[in-house]
Write a structure and sequence with these properties.
Rossmann fold, eight-stranded mixed β-sheet, 222 residues, 7 helices, alpha/beta
Length: 222
């Protein structure tokens, strides 16, 4: 584990098991108010063939608290400032390309996994720059409207695989947000696996188990 500085601060877990060719890359995107150490705690449960990078969001919101864009949670729903979200999207695109080069990852096997705001960004980046990714795991997220309206042509999206998870008891981003992601993605020529869990705004043992298995299946083998 080490912290590096490319265009974004991040933590790295090198592959624990060799795979054929260059290693597949899994990039982790945390939620608002958190940091790169949060999802990095999941690395012991993820496929050992992955080169895993957990990224710190570029905006500082407090002591050791970062985010991809300002957001307010109101009784009528989420209010997001999408200007900074677009800037974060551009920085993430740059970072992915830097990381592939810096760590010698396989550019055809790059995966995104994000939680909450990180899930929203994983959708935003992958829908607008699908050529950079093989698969995406949005956990307890939402669909940023600009990510949908500015998405790439269907012909560029056809190879993408999505594994979407959401909690039925989520009071931060209600289950309706997860179902909207599911329904929107199903309008596109992408492969969508959608799962709901009896959990809140969190990663449960069962959801992590299913995500891990899905990611391993994308690499081939158990």
């Amino acid at each position: 584990m080490e912290t590096k500085q490319l265009s974004l601060v991040h933590l790295v877990r090198k592959p624990l098991q060799e795979s054929e060719g260059k290693p597949p890359l899994l990039i982790l995107l945390h939620g608002v108010g958190s940091n790169e150490r949060d999802l990095f705690g999941l690395t012991p449960y993820l496929d050992p063939r992955f080169l895993i990078i957990s990224v710190r969001a570029r905006l500082t919101f407090g002591q050791d608290a970062f985010g991809w864009y300002p957001v307010q949670f109101t009784p009528t729903g989420v209010i997001a400032d999408e200007g900074p979200a677009e800037e974060s999207r551009q920085v993430l695109v740059q970072f992915v390309q830097e990381a592939i080069e810096a760590y010698g990852a396989d550019p055809k096997r790059v995966f995104l996994m994000g939680f909450s705001q990180g899930a929203a960004m994983s959708l935003y980046v992958s829908l607008t720059r699908p050529e950079l990714f093989a698969g995406v795991v949005p956990m307890s997220g939402r669909l940023i409207p600009a990510g949908w309206t500015n998405r790439a042509d269907n012909s560029a999206l056809r190879h993408l695989q999505y594994f979407v998870v959401h909690g039925t008891q989520d009071t931060v981003l209600p289950i309706s947000q997860g179902r909207e992601i599911r329904d929107r993605l199903r309008e596109l020529p992408v492969a969508v696996t959608y799962r709901e869990y009896a959990m809140g705004h969190q990663v449960s043992e069962q959801s992590l188990y299913d995500i891990t298995n899905w990611l391993s299946e994308q690499l081939g083998g158990q």
